[in-house]
Structures are given as structure tokens and as C-alpha cells.
Amino acid sequence: MATMLAARIAPHAMPTTDLQGVAIDGKAQRGRWRFPSMGCPIHALSAVCHGSGLVLAHEPITATDDKAEAELSVAPTLVGQITWYNRVLTGDALFGQRDLCEQVGAVGGAYLLLVKENQPALHDAVRFLFDSPADLAVLPLLDRREVHSVERGHGRTDERRHLIASTDLVDSLEWPGVAQVFRLERTWRAHGQSHRAVHYGITSLTPTQADATDLLALRRGHWTIENALPSSRCPPPTRAPGSSPCRPPLRCEVPGTA
């Protein structure tokens, strides 16, 4: 069903500035009973449209070992359910994997992903480009494009984002399809305290397809998935009249589905 729906709403020929972001993320559902043959999945990986919040695909996870490894084990299956033409895969550093980037690129899609220590060589190269040691003399970036934004809400005041994008590094990176790298810095105040976070990332979108403003919008849009997915709490289960609340439920409904 998810595959049919994804194909039905697949974007047709659109300007490159109207690329559609598709966020992927895994959610572990708490407070649920495991069922041998029916009931709702406890852990699943989902893909959600940035703009509409529509869930395009949903892949249950049955593995009970490491959460990250379990999500990666079903990611290729999830990605394979979606039409990627004019779409951009967004995700956290967990999904910064060569095979996923190649899979999306092979069917006409693009990616925008964070990079962290799970890809140490890639992470160190991008970090060094933007934040080299203070005692090391380096040349300024030949290609430097940047954008600033200020937002308020969610209990935070003056949340500022500063994204710098560059193509200086792409020729030396051995990574499938990479066309730009970026640095994203966030500063904000919450509950009277100042906070700062710096992230690095890669994308297969060229500067012509997506400038710094577009990259920031795609990264910001990734968090649509946090509001689009069902609650991580299972709703009260349906029990037979007179049954004990200590017994397993007869049926557990998945929020947001029929």
C-alpha cells in the first residue's frame, strides 16, 4: 500500500528549486506488548515528505539487537519503496552510508545527510575544511556560500542558524555523488541558558540545484518527521469485558491508521 501511494504522489518534472525532501528516521514504540502474529510494530523505520508530512513508506523492524544496526538493516528496503526522481533523502549521520547514497543516486534521487564519527575519515575531512586548528595557517575557501536565519518558538528564543556550503573538498572525497559539503551552526537560549551546536554534512545536490538557502531549508525540513510519525506511546489496548489489566491485551491499534 505504501509503495502504491508513494508512486501515486510521486513528483513529476519540477524545477530543481522545488526539490521535495523525504526524511527517514526510526522510532521505537514504548509501552507495547509483543504479538506473535498480530498487533502493532514496536520498532519501525519510516519515510516522510517534508512539505506534507505524509508517510510515504514504513518498514517494520523485527531485529532486537543494536537499535542503529537494526534500522540500517531495513533502510535499503525502505528506500527501494519510494520513487526518488526530484526527491532528496534527508537523515541523520546514521544513514550516511555509501550503499544508501548510491542506491538513491542510481534512481535519480539526491541526498543531504549529516556526517559524524561513524564515518571518521569523511567527518574529519569536512570538519578540517571549515574548522581547521587555530595554530595552522590555511588558505581561505575558494567557494564559500552562506546563509543566516533567526527563529523563535518551542520555548527557545533567538534560535540562530548559520550554514556555510562549499565545493572545495568534493574532488578529494571518495564518496558516491557528493557535490557539496556544509557546516551548520545553531545557537539558541532556552530556560535562561545559552546553547551551541555545530554539525557537518554532505549532499549530492550541486550549487546550481541547491544554494546555501536551499540546503538550510532542506535540513530544517527534516524535522517534519518528528511531528508526522505516530506517538511513541501505544494507545490503551482493547480488552475483553472483565479481563484483568495485568493480562496481555487482545488487540493494539496503530495510531493514525485504519
Summarize this, please?
By secondary structure, the protein is α+β, with helices and mostly antiparallel strands.
Mean pLDDT across the residues is: 80
The helix content, as a percent range, equals 10-25%
Q: How many domain units? A: 1
The total strand number stands at 9
Question: Structural class, from helix and strand content?
Answer: alpha+beta
What does the main sheet amount to? Answer: 9 strands, mixed
Strand content of the residues, in percent?
A: 25-35%
* Uncertain residue segments: 1-16, 231-258
- The CATH topology is Transposase Inhibitor Protein From Tn5, Chain A, domain 1
| CATH-defined architecture | Alpha-Beta Complex
For the termini, the CA-CA separation is 13 Å
Order of strands in the sheet with most strands? 3-2-1-4-5-9-8-7-6
The radius of gyration over CA amounts to 21 Å
Q: Using the coordinates above, name the CATH class.
A: Alpha Beta
Order of helices and strands: HEEEHEHEHEEEEHH
Provide a count of the helices.
6
Shape: globular
3D structure, described in words:
The protein contains 6 helices and 9 strands, in the order αβββαβαβαββββαα. It is α+β, with helices and mostly antiparallel strands. The protein has a single domain (2-9, 19-228), classed as Transposase Inhibitor Protein From Tn5, Chain A, domain 1 (Alpha-Beta Complex). Strands 3-2-1-4-5-9-8-7-6 form a 9-stranded mixed β-sheet, with helices on both faces. The chain is globular, with a radius of gyration of 21 Å.
